[in-house]
Amino acid sequence: MVVNRMRLDKFISKATELSRKESKKIMHAGEITVNDQVIKDPGVHVDIVNDDVMWAGEPLSVAAGNRYILLHKPEGFECTLKAKEYPIVTELISVPELGSLRIAGRLDVDTTGALLISDDGGWLHRVTSPKHEHAKVYELTLADAMDSAAQENAVKEVAEGILLEGDHEETKPAVLEFMDETHARLTLEQGKYHQVKRMMGYFGNRVTELHRASIGHISLDGLDKGDSRFLTEEEVAKF
């Protein structure tokens, strides 16, 4: 059950990343209103969904329950919690408490496509765990053209499983479909490190563009690069 009531000092701390001590200080200064009333008592409980909490006239909010988000990741963003060389994907999402969000099935900086983000750890595990068999569809562009014989061989080997360099077990059977000599679609039910690129490397080729079109039953459905949306209850329940 989602609990929607919270101490006001805790609410302010979560909404602003101020410490509880700093939150009490701005309350005592009369800077916080709840439903247009100045509140100085940090022990007052507020309804985080229905009460209007303001700091110096600016609205504050925190998350109620778990969030389940689909993001169309563009190039140039890292799937990490702290920025290193590039900005991080959560910077593209406008929700409170970004620090509690985690990513299911990370994508490389130069890879685009469907990314699922949530603060529900158990749900994220179900999305990514191979035993739950949620297929991920990738669209890829190859550096070198593959003729019909090479395509047929690759399709057959991928369907049986291949042993990638450095691994001790073969990949799970997957579906490889060629659109033409340099474009293909690969459907996987697992997520080894750099798996798509390594699989094409197994055949002496290199992936120059990679896009994840869908995860399980979730597809981007016209969502533009950099845009996101919350999943429906029905979509969440299917994982």
From TrEMBL:
The keyword RNA-binding applies. InterPro entries: PsdUridine_s_RsuA/RluB/E/F_cat, PsdUridine_synth_cat_dom_sf, PsdUridine_synth_RsuA/RluA, PsdUridine_synth_RsuA/RluB/E/F, PsdUridine_synth_RsuA/RluB_CS, RsuA_PseudoU_synthase, S4_RNA-bd, S4_RNA-bd_sf. It comes from Psychrobacter glaciei. Residues 6-68 form the RNA-binding S4 domain. PANTHER family: PSEUDOURIDINE SYNTHASE, PSEUDOURIDINE SYNTHASE FAMILY PROTEIN-RELATED. Pfam families: PseudoU_synth_2, S4. Belongs to the pseudouridine synthase RsuA family. Its EC number is 5.4.99.-. Keywords: Isomerase, RNA-binding. It catalyses: uridine(516) in 16S rRNA = pseudouridine(516) in 16S rRNA. Responsible for synthesis of pseudouridine from uracil-516 in 16S ribosomal RNA. SMART domains: S4 (SM00363). This is Pseudouridine synthase.
